[in-house]
Amino acid sequence: MSGIEITPAAQEQILDYFKGKDVKPIRIFLNEGG
């Protein structure tokens, strides 16, 4: 559990953003301790 929560509305916006685009893997790097 990473502590990151994506609401259904946010997920919908993300999917909408990538519509018609080449979807490439997104890596989010989180630094420990902020």
UniProtKB/TrEMBL annotation:
Protein name: Uncharacterized protein
Domain of life, source organism: Bacteria
